[in-house]
Amino acid sequence: MAGNGSQSGDSLPSAKEDEKYVTISALDGGHLTLPEYLFITDADPERRATVPSLCFLIQHPSLGNNGRDTMNLIFDLGLKRDLTQYTPAMASHIANRQPVITEPDCAGSLQAGGLEPDVDIDIVILSHVHWDHVGTPSDYKTAKFFVGSGTLHVLQNGAGSHYPAEIFNKDLLPTVATFEFPPTSSGDQSIASGRRTGHTWQSFAGFPNALDLFGDGSVWVIDAPGHIIGHVNLLARIGKDRWVYLGGDCCHDVRILKGEKGIATYDDGHGGQRTVHMDTQAATKTLDQIKSFLGKNAQVQVIVAHDIGWREKNKDKFFPGTI
Known about the structure:
Organism: Rhizodiscina lignyota
Number of domains: 1
Keywords: Hydrolase, Metal-binding, Zinc
Distance between the termini: 26 Å
Number of helices: 7
CATH architecture: 4-Layer Sandwich
Family: Belongs to the metallo-beta-lactamase superfamily.
Cofactor: Zn(2+)
Protein name: Metallo-beta-lactamase domain-containing protein
């Protein structure tokens, strides 16, 4: 899909008469419980918060499956509703994230709003393949799956000592229906595998690596390295000079984006220190780029995957409601 031209400045382009918009609806994808000291600086060591794993339905005005007049895209799938479908190693980790709530999951949230996951979804994009974002891909029988470069390598081989291969389901994604976004010029070409989408990275609104998903400037995939290999965000245009930035796990607490908190460092269990990010330096750079972008584009609403405050204040934005 061809792009609509690169834009090297930090500000979003002005609205045009013929531009296309998408609609975005939030979806519940389950809840998990996180100890704050693992995620933010100056945290109460005893405080634990049960937070959502938000998913999003993005509807694009183009022809979808079965002649529908919208292309239906899901960004992230949340938790699996059946926790026994995780690997034993992952189940041990999940035991430390209780309480975990799996209903409604992403598929159930779609059905509650009037869509059937197995026939009405055209594309699924995963921000990354950590357990609380992968859901149950087999629910989406007619969808193509798009993932960040290197994701398939992670599923087969893991991603370093903190994310060993045994925590991932090797057969998570359908082989014939899964496509990776191409590596960026700065990415690791050696771990890219599988079939690639036909997109090209370009600079857009201050982001050095963005791709125009539909070729009309309505939805941009943003390369967001640092959290884990293949991590991507989405930037979508929902109206004249109105945009939404879906930040996935660029941070786990929106106060980090606001500059009120920093990324927590904690004992890695082997005599060293770590953060929740695979590459903290890259994750920090990604956050700095997002902060700079938001500072120059006041018309953008940002939502990160585990923002309980946003969920509580915006229950009317869940499908069939819209953002």
